[in-house]
Amino acid sequence: MSIHLRTMCLFAILVLGNLPLKSQEKKVPSFEAVLSLPSVRNVQMAPDGSNITFEVTHTDWEANRYDTEIWLSRNGGSPFRLTNNPEGSSSNAKWSPDGQWIAYLANKKEHTQIYVLRLAGGESFAVTDGKGDVQDFEWRPDGKAILFLQNQDDEKARKSRKEKYGDFAEEDHEYLLTRLWIISFDPSGWEHPSWPGKAQESLNDELHGRIVLDSVPYTITGFLWSPDGRTVAIQHQPDPLINTFLHSDISLLDAGDGTVSPLIRNLSSDGLLDWSPDGNSILYQSNLTDSTSNYYRNGHLFMINCQSRQQTPVAVGFDEEFSGLQWTASGIFGLAYQKTRRMLWQIDPGNPERVLPFINNPDRISGFASTKDGRSMAFIGSSASQLDEVYLMQTGQPTIQLTHFTSEIKNWKLAQSEVIQWESKDGQVIEGVLMKPENYDPSKKHPLLVIIHGGPTGISVPAPIASYVYPVAQWLAKGALILMPNYRGSAGYGEAFRALNVRNLGVGDAWDVLSGVDELIGRGLVDADSMGCMGWSQGGYISAFLTTNTGRFKAISVGAGISDWMTYYVNTDIHPFTRQYLKATPWSDPEIYAKTSPISTIQQASTPTLIQHGEFDRRVPIANGYELYQGLQDVGVPVKMMVYKGFGHGITKPKERLAATWHNWQWFGKYIWGEELTMPEK
């Protein structure tokens, strides 16, 4: 349920040296400027560690979309945009084993296909042209073929049925299994990297690829070539439905004869991570036999020898979840939070219980890539005063900062962010991020706006600017303080902390929020008569719980929030979430569903509430919004509901995100500052 979005800035502010000093004064950015800040992700290294690609997402207001393109840095030089897809995005870049080609995914026609670019120059061209979308791909270690994932094709069958019976669907049974395909890649005879003339004609029939694995009764969700290219490790589950991840397993495919043999078949989810450099073992994560607490407990890491099947536990005493794990000749590297810091950690396969910090500066590493020997790395890092930047680190050399996005916001009024602590009602220590305006005056009491992250296993971290649909920079400029609590259940604080809201959803979360508010009031920082609260997803649920359980806020905004756990349970696409956190169904324990549902205490609601919801939300279905809306109307509480047409759980287009930002600006402007604000028409 988590929607945890951090924005990063590439917005250009041109300042001419001969302008008067007044032009250098810091300014409050517009909503559009903040929403236009590009984000950086998916850094990848060439095999020799010399060149780096990464993705930059920017805002296309005219087309009303977020467009992602691939950028390249050669030999530690200044990055530049490599792709320019006018029809959509380019993403998921992967280097060929010889480092001479970059393959990536792009939707330039009807479907997403694999394209390649020659590093030496030339136009990009498609290497697949199938009837479905390519979901993922991997180069074969010899570089002469590409393995990829694509759904079954049932177009003819669906068309025939629709012509005879019209349009209908059976719930939980209308899906396509994902199959494994392969396409040859041999540019040795090409004169130009765009398949001209006879080369193009002779290879047209090969563009669709060949199915490698289609007779198995499961869908493939991931795969990795062994270093020698003789074996493919595949992760699979019975069907592509979202809840079936609980039954994912790992098997081995012999690339020569096509036989498949099971490798890991635990009763709960098994996730493929990486091959050992020698190709003898696989690193994987599993919930073993536990399918009742996957959402909040740590997964278990193992190395398994593919021949002997001997298993070795990894990082047993490390109390957090790893992500992005890569096994190199220098060790296993992975990302994990420790409170609000996210570091790159190193694990020695020879001593797998030992976990050491490898990169801890800047404060948060959001992504990395390593060469196979582990001697060269690229990573993305940020901090309380710095936006995400891309770095190159090579053994024996100083780390090079390749990007300088943070300099682009030097003339913006930004947040002063710090981490604070307080004690909740039950004695649990809670942390949160406190944002103060640049001209903060500690002698005054300030309005307070509380922004609650989703998840619940999301996390809020110090940053110079924040966004999504909340005008944080503009509220700070009005003199408000912003509190972002990492309530019980948040990531970064260990498994036991994440389990604290089991059978205590809403109740314990409200303790954590209100005790944080009391802490700031006790410090003399906050005007208790000028406070608002908001959040999206789980943060929206906690905001709804506060709407019906306290009158301490002047206004609340509920974004895609749950109002009734029973309504949620029977409509959501992740039914196990509720069963795991409440340890019951509505039929086995209606009391716990009532205790934790905001709608149960609707009669005592008094806070003016804005409801924001996507029309086609499957994660938190819009019935929850309508239920809260009608309930608040019935008890006479001021309420407004905004439905964002065509959207699911998140607002994923810039114009509607701008509208949602304005709706929050108006709502809190009215009830916190007494302002009647009008959205501009142009």
List keywords for this structure.
single chain; about 675 residues; alpha+beta; Neuraminidase; Rossmann fold; four-stranded antiparallel sheet; about 35% strand; globular; disordered N terminus
Write the layout of secondary structure elements.
Blueprint: H1 31-35, E1 39-45, E2 51-60, E3 65-74, E4 80-81, E5 90-95, E6 101-107, E7 112-118, E8 125-126, E9 134-139, E10 145-151, H2 155-165, E11 178-184, H3 197-203, E12 210-213, E13 219-225, E14 231-237, E15 249-254, E16 260-264, E17 270-275, E18 281-286, E19 300-305, E20 311-314, E21 323-328, E22 331-338, E23 341-348, E24 351-359, E25 364-370, E26 376-383, E27 386-394, E28 400-401, E29 416-423, E30 429-436, E31 446-452, H4 472-477, E32 481-486, H5 495-498, H6 507-522, E33 526-536, H7 538-549, E34 555-559, H8 565-571, H9 575-582, H10 590-595, E35 609-614, H11 623-634, E36 639-644, H12 654-673
Parallel strand pairs: 31-32, 31-33, 33-34, 34-35, 35-36
Antiparallel strand pairs: 1-2, 2-3, 3-4, 5-6, 6-7, 7-8, 9-10, 10-11, 11-12, 13-14, 14-15, 15-16, 17-18, 18-19, 19-20, 21-22, 22-23, 23-24, 25-26, 26-27, 27-28, 29-30, 30-32
